[in-house]
Design a protein that fits this description.
heterodimer, A: about 900 residues, alpha/beta, 6-stranded mixed β-barrel, 30 helices, about 30% helix, disordered C terminus, B: alpha/beta, 5-stranded mixed beta sheet, 24 helices, about 10% strand, disordered N terminus
Amino acid sequence: MVISLSVDGVAVEVRDGATLLDAVLAAGAHVPHLCKDPDQRPIGACRTCMVEVDGQRGLRASCHTPAFEGAGVRTRGDALDRVRRTVLELTAGMVDGHVVSARGGVSAELRGALARYGIDGARYAALPRRHLDDSNPFYLRDLSACILCGRCVTACQDVQHIGAIAIAGRGREGRIAAAMDRPISESICTSCGQCVSVCPTGALTPKPAPLPEIVREVESTCPYCGVGCGVRLQIDADEHIAAVADEPANLSSQGMLCVKGRFGTSFVHHPDRLTQPLIRRDGELRPATWDEALDLVAAKVVEHRKSFAALASAKCTNEDNYVFQKFVRAVMGTNNIDHCSRLCHGPSVTAMMLQIGSGATSNSYQDYEDAGCLMVVGSDTSSNHPVIASRLRRAIDTRGTKLVVVNPMRIDLCDYTDMWLRPHPGTDVALFNSMARAIVDEGLEDGAFIEARTDGYDAWRASLAAYAPEEAERTTGVPAELVRRAARAYARPPFSGSCLLWGMGVTQHTSGTDNAHALVNLMLATGQVGRRGSGISPLRGQNNVQGCGDAGCLPNTLPGMQGLEPEVVRAFEAAWGAELPAAAGLTSTEMIELAAEGKLDVMYIVGENPLLGEPFLAHAEEGIERLKFLAVQEIFMTETAQRAHVVLPSATFAEKEGTFTNSERRVQRVRQAVSPPGQARADWAIVCEVANRVARLLGREQAGFSFDNPAAIFDEMASVWPAVAGISHARLDREGGIQWPCPTADHPGTGQLFGDTFPSGCGRFVAVTQGPPAAELPSRRFPFILSTGRVLYHWHGGTMTRRVKGLLARSPVVRVAIHPEDAAEQDVANGERVVVSSRRGELPCEALVTEAVPRGELFVPFVKLAESAANFLTNAVYDPKSKIPEYKVCAVRIDKPGAVRRGRGERVRTPFKTRPR
Amino acid sequence: MHGLSGTRWEALLSEDGAAAARGSALDAAPRARSQLLPRLLDAQERDGFVSEASLAAIARDLHVPESEAFGVATSYSELRMTPRTAPHVSICTGLSCLLNGARALADALPSALPSGWQVEEEPCRFRCDAAPIAMVGQRYVSRATADGVAAAVAGADDGGPDERPTAEERPGETRRLLGRCGRIDPDEIDGALALGAYDGWQRARSLAPTAIVAIVEASGLRGRGGAYFPAATKWRGVHAHPAPRYLVVNAEEGEPGVFKDRYLIEGDPHLVVEGILIAARAVEAARVYVYVNGEARLAAERLRVAIARADARGLLTGAPPIEVRRGAGGYVCGEESVILSSIEGERAVPRLRPPFPVDAGLFGRPTVINNVETLCNLPQIVIGGGEAFRATGTAEHPGTKLVCLSGAFARPGVYEVPFGTPLRRIVGEIGGGAAPGRTLRALLCGGPSGSLLPPSCWDAPLVPNGLDDAGASPGAGGIVAIDEMMSIREVVRHLAAYNAAESCGKCTPCREGTVRMVALLDERPGDARARMDDLTEAMGAASLCGLGQMAPLPYLSARRHFGNEL
């Protein structure tokens, strides 16, 4: 419905539900509206947006007065002008004019309003609240510029659902404060900066303050986790990214960002960036020309082409990855290509491919907010997918959505539920099977769905015989009644459907694939998929894990996750004009093992750092060092690059064009905002150069690597992968991100998969049984179980985040979480230096005494900080079905430095002592 | 960023609609968070203040971020975040107490108290008819003197009844609501029953809810909280929406110079309960919340007892649950939307309107908010019918009004008069004129945001907007008699400072304007007058709620009637 009204005599139309302010702005008139964030509900605090309405006495605050048919709105008038002026004068009297006038950007809103009405602050002597909080490394809180509009509080409470700040006090004592007026750094603030982005006065301002002047903005996609938030890179006159703004129009992030997205891009300009090709000469990496480096790589890979493997990067674009896998397959003639999803969601993909024929997230993020129940398994969503966590919290806070958390660790989301299931590590199969048993025992399964859409139900049901919740409780430690409550909530949510989200806690086990099977079985039994508010989501860790696999960087699938069936291979041979290998290639973990055995000669690694990401790093190091030739294409001199024979400097996300595909299958544009430093080049361009040189050496004429730009690469990918046939860079530029499948140019994209059928036809129940919890269990000498994971302020190994000053300031050292009672027994104090050791290595770190971990368990993030990295400890044993290492369980001990007791003859390898060769 | 169809805030609105269609588990039900203020009050009761540990524990239990719990706690004047370090006596320095020597008392006290004791000033203790008031622990000292307070501190005056004085009925009064006050034992029920308590409720039970609304509509009953909105119109408003609906009883009465609701509850709690029962039936409320001023301990307790007694007699059969909630200070808490926020566990600040409470009030549901005195009129209306009710008062304002006389009156207290009674009669016949040796100069009618009226206005009838040519109103019924003890200027400044201290701080014109008003009153002559004109206009026109909008009224009325004294 449309409402017609007039503003200062100008006729306008607004939608039903719009406010008078909407009408005023639609008419092109102006009123200040300092507390009204365009994207949020009105607050009604600043009272600067007053208008007159014909026939009504007095003035109306336009921001919260509904527009109505036939209204005659006036924005000027003698009384109105006087009132507005006085209110602005009172507002000016709240602040320190010098502080306000120093602020630019969004923060200039107050300054602009005062200037527009010619208010110089002379009428009321300023009485600013003097309070400066400099405790957060990313932003400054200077309350001498605060007008108590409350926008920051809305951002913190209602947008991000964090609740670090609130308005406290009464009257003139009113202030924006953390609990008990603590410094913001001692609050639960996650430094997401949502508050900073909406402050109209500059009381909240990014550091360093003041910001340089922004000369242009480039819309792009965040380079960190798999959520895929929209960013606007703000570029200053020096061609630097001066700041990052959120993008409210982005459908995946809806204007939200986390600390890494908003404040974590300075790595792009870090002096450590690689700026020229390097060739190892006389044992040292020395500068070389591009031609020298590319020729050497081409010559070496040709020389060892029978023993060649490649690692692609989930941080690179779809276009980079498509070109890379095409090179490996069509030119090198091997399927030996893999990427880091082996180390994260390999088991999920393996299980899902077998059971339903697809490894992708079935739903959209919006479904989390539409769901009646959310079950979050083995994922510390708040740390690793912060913006998805915000959406989960929003659903729970505003709609009473049920939450089930399954995690041995107490994660932030546990505060939002009374259904926290805390299984013993490695007992997931027993837990999920017992939940399934509870569902079928109580008749909560979806019989119609099972009948129409699945196979193997009866056999699976029979397999649950040994998993009555009371039985399983003895294995899992989770009370049977809690399992039943969770089962009821998931199978029969109070409204809408249920979404199942999981992370590495499920997959990084020797039973990882079985764990995933058990979860998918729950979905199949309850039919919680394919409808609004339901679905299954393996949450993707890296910005483009989804896209890297989609582009074909897996040893057993071609682009579009198309298998190696002969007819598929033939179609690609026709498309690429080359003979393609028929057999599946090596997984990344197999590559490292083979290398360690001396059975792999050459690796070409793009944007991956196995010497931080692989388990049992000392062993991985041996493998890498035995390679005859290693080419590494990187932005920084990583631990792996240090051991390369050739290092090729490449471009970051901000320096190239392309696309990323996020966790909800949304293909989004990445745009060049600045030039790469020195001679660094875009990954796709480097790979094309190598491919052409190799093809020449192999005597091929037409190599298929003469792309003008990434748009052309995408077009070729769309021609071989039907699910993105309707997507092109031009369309993404016009419409924003699109979720595949999108088969035609007029197709809107697909939010929900599997509504009618699974790609494999019927969904398959796969019966799984609980085995031993882990390959390595605690012993007298190694009495603790160690789990690894991530922290909010760092991203994975930390190659990028370690080079962002503020992130490092918030999280400077590796900390091992230990239960208070264990800490007391071990005589370890919070903050004390300790050494955690396993049979494979040692980790010097700092103790974090917290009840977040259960007794007997320790937790360490796998980020490398101050030369400490958890993967020196982890166990290189693998899930037989997906080859994922068991990062989540190994046996360790904790000691004070210098007191490490070693077994006789035991050789303990210390971190990163190896010299570059 | 805004646009016709692209306004994302609009999208948010339609999202809300869609969300409602998608379902929610939160519909209409009171949430855990609504226990926030009761829990904070319990903590303070236990520890004497809200400790950091209590705040954290309460926040965790109720799933409220600690910062928000802190924000809520610090929005109430009576919640302390730090422990007291010394024993203390508090002296009420409300206007009525100042007019009865509170300043001199406060000055004299320190030397009269044992060493180590502190003297604190409180804005109002709502016992204005026994001014000046001191408080030692939970004990009130009425008509306090330094010796009397010292005796209370020494414990000599321990254990006396915590009753407020009952005023004798005066000629010129028409007691319809006060009839049983002072004649029954408020902690028992038999005396009240013998004098007709619950007869109206028994009759109402036999009537359809719409029939009750019709009778009340015929009576012309208007709200007695100060706005005088027709009661039946509100009730019909909620009937336009589906259940569940809520009834909220405004017993906050946090306005200096007004103490009639306390008087009613303490003197005849059964009348209040009966009124609640009738209104709850009329609006078909799913639940009733009675929001009692945090300081009115006795009233809250008597109400709880009365509810229990009525329940024991089976009188609550068919009635919704009645929950007594206590406030925690703040003049603004009497604002009806603040009560809703407070019950829900939000900060004590007003809400934006629309939506109006009748459409979307407590927990987003249609809600009627009625003042205690309004409800106390219901039994006689249900029994006697609408026409009989109209026999008293004026055509536009039928019935009686409770007035609270304090200040320099000879006979301060709560009295009941028909609407239309001339002020002069209330002053003379009922209030007994000035106390011996004093000369009345003005009346402050309508509380701290009321109007100052000189004797020349006192022939005006007691009706809303009719007390002077500018439309001064009696508000909730507070009438403070002002004599030479304070100058008009001092009175205006005192009220301005009170309003500045009581501003909740949500909106700029009130939070900043009230403070600037005080400063401008202290500044003269210069251009203060012109700035005061602009300031009072802006506060009146742009403030979010009545507190800010009406804060300039004492000054403006003084300008009209006592211009040369400002």
